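Exam revision sheet. Question 4 asks you to relate a sequence to its structure. Input first:
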Amino acid sequence: MDKHIKVPMNKQEAATLRAGDYVYLTGTIYTARDAAHKRMYEALQEGRELPVDVEGNVIYYMGPSPAREGRPIGSAGPTTASRMDKYAPKLLDLGLIGMIGKGKRSKEVIDAVVRNGAVYLAAVGGAGALLSRCIVKSEVVAYDDLGTEAIRKLEVENFPAIVVIDCQGNNLYETAIEQYRKDV
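Answer key, structure tokens:
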């Protein structure tokens, strides 16, 4: 099912999403990759505040290429989500409602998604140039020294993703395999 979602979103909206749904996000999302996640984790360990409020927000695991003239951002494809698995449960417990990446997640992340009524979405790997067309504004908001791994605030319009893990723990990567085996 296709769903158009305004971001940030709340738990009630996240609860309407099911594994396999196509979603189109419009509003504000943030980017963060490995180095930014490590810094956020260390900040929390030291009792400091995060540089962005994760409550109700979505983090896109992406580090863009340089923007071409007239564009807010360069190619903006997803990175492998499992690299953030060490950090994701804590952010979800703090109110993060969604993550966008590619690839499978650990049991700890899946448990945290369910525990917090969140979702994990996948963006199509290899389609970074196309995905960047849905990004209308990009600004670095934290960790500028990390370059492409800095935290960015993005304004997106109809950013396409697929719900992989919903708030009930349904996992498209598992159900799709089961369905494929039945169809073969």
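Marking note for examiners. The first helix runs from residue 11 to 15.
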